[in-house]
Model the fold of this input.
Amino acid sequence: MIIVVLGANGATGRLVVRELMSRSIPTRILIRKTAALDSDIEKSPYVEIVRGSISELGRSELCDLLRDCTVVISCLGHTPTLKGIFGKPRHLVTDAVQGICETVKRSDRKLKLVLMSTTGYTNRSIGESHPLGERMIFSALSVLLPPQRDNVMAADYLVNVLGQGNEAIRWVVVRPDTLVNQDEASPYEITSSPVRSPLFNSGKTSRRNVGHFITELATDPMLWGSWEGKTPVIYNK
Done:
């Protein structure tokens, strides 16, 4: 089993990689050619490093990235700079998710995909909704902030386009609330939908807890079965 992690150099992605390393799980990461990598990850015997940008990989390169892979974890996001927020690629996450899914479908194989999203995503397929004021704000954010729109489009692709009945690609969309840094994992709870307003009464979710839950999903078949094809929300207790 090889697990591929996208966005492995990000604040949450690197914690996912470390969680996998702690369990001696072979992990393949894709990071930009110019990106610096923490020494413990770089020297780990369990981590294979591939340099490049997911948005620039051709079909054969993407096939190589997914070779012998059983799970893909996407922690991709836009860097919090003007260029990262408003520059290209504007559909980084969506294009990556679609590219992986199309590659898997053409190769006649099966794959699990975990997408880290946000409570800013509303899963309307299960009846989620927000008050009018919040809906207006979310609509404005999707127009004004390309990363928000990208996150919504990526999750919508899995929920509404790929759906739950695809035999080749099984997926879970993980939705943390406001991300915070903690040195250690702590108790957390998983709910099927947000239990508080992500705009006006947001909860906290530590990146380390996100890394733990995502790794549990990738390695525990029973937990995966509980959330496959769903969009769980994770909060610190």
Notes: The domain at 2-236 is CATH 3.40.50.720 (Rossmann fold). The chain has a mean pLDDT of 90. The chain has one domain: 2-236. The first strand starts at residue 2 and ends at 6.
